[in-house]
């Protein structure tokens, strides 16, 4: 086996991280934009090739999530962030590196569901006030 | 961070819940209808816009799961319940609220796989005999 | 409830297994063929109806993973193994049976993503040097 982490990830830490990822998509997909933004630290960063500049800080992240939700709604669709393959590496007691697959699935009212985009996210997490928050997310699209 | 639960979900409880959801789809998809029904309490309820009336109790739930399996088989297909984005909120020591994404994927023998339906489930779980069982499931379809 | 395992799976064991499955797909999908092969024991076996003979041992498994990655790349595509519905049954302290759904999703550069194949994996895991490794994997395709 190759060495891959400075230390083991405990069951407790993994549970906390799985809860964060389990919950996060429901927030942005359901229109809880501010709560989604608050899964990042106050100056958290979101980098994606789909957008020209990084989205930085709670206010920008909130607006980003609002736009995501509004655009889907205006198109008469529901968009979902499907998270799988969560892999957690402990950097130290207070920081984690997480990667996962994130698929965007869209469904038209009265219509079919389709896989819009397949991405991989690479997140850097930090512990704040006994919670894990995202300090930086970088999205890679499989089609680019 | 917004307050979202009366108490933390422990790693042990989360493991029990993930095992329940990891296992449940294999049961209905593989034709183990009675065992699927027994992941609900004896008077458990299943509410879905796809069906005119709620399905209530072990016998009705068993028949529901049998029909799901038989219809796929009669169509020459295999149908799968793909569960992701499990989010667990503790109401108290004995009850949990869980939401998750549940996709139905169908594959024809010798044919392609397709995403049939994207749904969100909202479950209410209770602890019985040291196991978590579903007291009520409500399904929301993205296309309706 | 039906009896289904000799013993409970602890939160710690489930965390270890979820980490293994969370990580494994990133390895083969990202071209880390040898590291993927090393998630199996040294004489580990991979059985699939997609291939005429079982793939056995670290060297063969490594070559298998290299070919998977090279074929996708040569086709101008990225292929992903999406794992869900992980269900873990403890046989004893040192061995586990795991089943899960494994979908292959392909994305062309500049093109759409598509679900190529839906499979179910049945794995037999053993503990070695404080890690869980796959002793045998059997893949079942829904289209065959």
TrEMBL record, chains A, B, C:
Gene3D superfamilies: 3.10.450.50
UniProt KW Oxidoreductase keyword: yes
Domain of life: Bacteria
Signal peptide interval: none
Residue span, SnoaL-like domain: 14-138
GO molecular function: dioxygenase activity
Record keywords, A-Z: Dioxygenase, Oxidoreductase
Name this protein carries in UniProt: Small subunit of phenylpropionate dioxygenase
Organism the protein comes from: Rhodococcus coprophilus
């Amino acid at each position: 086996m190759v060495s891959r982490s400075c230390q083991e990830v405990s069951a407790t830490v993994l549970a906390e991280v799985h809860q964060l990822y389990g919950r996060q998509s429901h927030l942005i997909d359901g229109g809880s934009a501010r709560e989604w933004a608050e899964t990042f630290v106050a100056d958290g960063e979101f980098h994606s090739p789909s957008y020209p500049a990084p989205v930085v800080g709670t206010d920008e992240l909130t607006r980003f999530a609002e736009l995501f939700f509004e655009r889907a709604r205006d198109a008469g669709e529901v968009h979902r962030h499907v998270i799988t393959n969560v892999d957690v590496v402990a950097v130290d007691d207070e920081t984690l590196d997480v990667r996962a697959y994130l698929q965007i699935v869209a469904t038209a009212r009265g219509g079919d569901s389709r896989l819009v985009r397949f991405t991989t996210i690479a997140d850097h997490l930090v512990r704040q006030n006994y919670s894990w928050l995202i300090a930086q997310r970088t999205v890679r699209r499989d089609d680019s």
